[in-house]
Design brief:
Elements lengths: L3 H24 L12 E7 L8 E7 L10 E3 L6 E3 L4 E5 L5 E4 L5 E2 L5 E2 L7 E2 L2 E2 L5 E6 L4 E6 L8 E5 L2 E2 L6 E3 L5 E3 L13 E3 L1 E3 L5 H38 L1
Antiparallel strand pairs: 1-2, 3-18, 4-17, 5-6, 5-14, 7-8, 9-10, 11-12, 12-13, 15-16
Helix pairs in contact: 1-2
């Protein structure tokens, strides 16, 4: 059998992996704060002894994430926050480590914990933020959380904590399978006091549905070409076998 069939098969597998990346991007086109993932495959030449490098295998590589900003969506909700500029909201991942997100749709649990829309604890100066019973909760532009304690007058205010806003170098960031962004070295970040939040807004995903659909269609055509190549190689092998039987 022509070994080229394995090369075509490897290419097809990488195309399917690329399809899944673009399909996931498209599925999250309306997910708040979602960052588009890239896909990339490189070719590596294959040679046999001193022969000519006539064939190449495709190998998938992690190409990274598009950290460009999405557009601002006006919600008017007090606990909706969009990070201005290149900052991030620090949260506690399910494994207990520190992670970052730009999805600022916040809520307060029945236990008084400040959570993101997907139930991740928001970090403050000393860890996950807990909010005492209050008649009103206000988030300041610098992340400061101010409450009107339950049963108190409107002019009686108390500062509870401050949301941890960070601005790490993009070169040090990596996106996990859970959609959260972390520092590559696994260390905790340092708060950046210059960052600001915009109340009553959310940041949309930076996915371009048109671009993702175009890529999916292009990859589908490439996959069809690889399937045709495998069929052609199979026919060639069958024809060669018949010639050998009759000779």
């Amino acid at each position: 059998m022509d070994r080229g069939i394995y090369i075509a098969m490897a290419s097809g597998q990488n195309i399917m992996s690329a399809q899944s990346v673009h399909a996931n991007n498209l599925a999250n086109a309306n997910t708040t704060g979602f960052q588009t993932d890239f896909e990339q495959a490189t070719t590596h030449s294959v040679s046999y002894g001193d022969g000519y490098k006539s064939r190449s295998y495709a190998i998938t590589e992690g190409a990274g994430t598009n950290f460009s900003r999405g557009s601002m969506i006006d919600t008017g909700r007090d606990l909706d926050m969009a990070v201005e500029g290149d900052g991030w909201i620090a949260v506690q991942a399910p494994d207990g480590t520190e992670a970052f997100t730009r999805a600022g749709s916040l809520k307060i649990s029945p236990e008084g914990q400040l959570l993101t829309g997907n139930n991740l604890p928001v970090l403050g100066n000393g860890g996950p933020i807990a909010i005492p019973p209050a008649d009103k909760v206000t988030l300041g532009a610098d992340g400061t959380i101010t409450i009107q304690p339950q049963g108190q007058k409107v002019d009686v205010l108390s500062t509870v904590d401050r949301i941890k806003l960070v601005k790490p170098d993009y070169a040090q960031l990596t996106k996990g399978l859970d959609g959260l962004v972390r520092l590559r070295d696994g260390e905790e970040s340092v708060p950046d006091a210059s960052l600001r939040l915009q109340s009553g807004f959310l940041e949309s995903s930076n996915v371009s549905p048109v671009d993702e659909l175009t890529q999916i269609m292009s990859l589908a055509r490439q996959f069809e070409i690889n399937v045709k190549m495998m069929k052609t190689m199979e026919q060639n092998s069958s024809t060669a076998a018949q010639i050998l039987r009759t000779s």
